[in-house]
Every structure is written in C-alpha cells, then in structure tokens.
Amino acid sequence: MIREYNELDFNKVNVLGRDLDINFIIKLTPERKCYIYEKNDEILGFITFDILIDRVEIIDFIVHINHRKKGIGSLLLNKAIEVSISNNCKSISLEVKSTNKNAISFYIKNNFKNVSTRKRYYENGSIDAYLLYREL
Q1: What DSSP assignment string belongs to 7-27?
Q2: How would you label 94-124 residue by residue, b for 16+ Cβ within 10 Å and e otherwise?
C-alpha cells in the first residue's frame, strides 16, 4: 500500500535510506513530499520529491533490495507523477549515478530522457551524474 509519510515512519525510513547514503536522515520541508510503500507494517520503499512551482525534482527514491523487480518502484514513481500533475507541474527530473545501470534503465522505461551529464558529481568527484528529465 502506498501512503503519505508520517512522523511515525521516521526510524524505518532512515534505516532503509541508509542504503542510499550511510548518513541518510529524511528531511522534509514545506515543498517536499514523501510517499512510502508499506506491506505488513514494513516499509519496503519510499520516494521523496520537491514541488518547485511548476516542476518536480525527485530527491530520494529506493526500494528495499529484497523487494526490487516487483513493481513497487513503478507504483511509487506513478504516485509522484500523479501528485505532480495534480499540482499543475509540467516536468519531473532527477540526478542518478552514471554507474547505476538498473536505475537508469528503470527511468528510461518510464519515459525519462538523459538531458545532461554532471561530470565528477558523486563519490568525491569520481562518478558522473546523469540529469534525467520527463515532461508531464
């Protein structure tokens, strides 16, 4: 089930988020939304994104490694797109490590385009970032 994040999710989201970054701590702001995928009281994935007037930027997006390739990522991304459209946003974008082939493939299948490369963006300047973009 997909639902909006609430404060009771803080610890579980942060534990899962540590697969993104060892120092991960969820930070919500007025423009930031977070939706989680929960099953049997376990958070299996989440997506955070900022609504910036007429566009959306995905900030964090993860599905637990043992639950990938089951459609959870697609459900979360579709929820973000649905919320974006309902907020009259025209586009959605994100950055992804150039080495993250599975994520890149997922986004391409979901109509994102690689529009730019940010050289030496991640890992102390050793990994490029791709800027992916999709019109809504």
Answers
A1: GGGHHHHHHHHTTT-TT----
A2: bbbebeeeebbebbeeeebeeeeeeeebbee
Name the token pair of 108: 């391409």
Per domain, the residue ranges of the chain are 1-89, 93-136
What are phi and psi for residue 85, nearest 5 degrees? -65, -40
Could you name the CATH architecture of 1-89? 3-Layer(aba) Sandwich (3.40)
Provide the 10 A C-beta neighbour count for residue 60.
19
Q: Per-residue pLDDT for the chain (136 aa), expressed as one digit of tens each?
A: 999 999 999 999 999 999 999 999 999 999 999 999 999 999 999 999 999 999 999 999 999 999 999 999 999 999 999 999 999 999 999 999 999 999 999 999 999 999 999 999 887 888 999 999 999 9
Q: Yes or no: say if 120 and 126 are a contact pair by the CB < 8 Å rule.
A: yes
DSSP code string of 22-58: TT------TTEEEEEEEETTEEEEEEEEEEETTEEEE
The whole model's pTM is what? 0.93
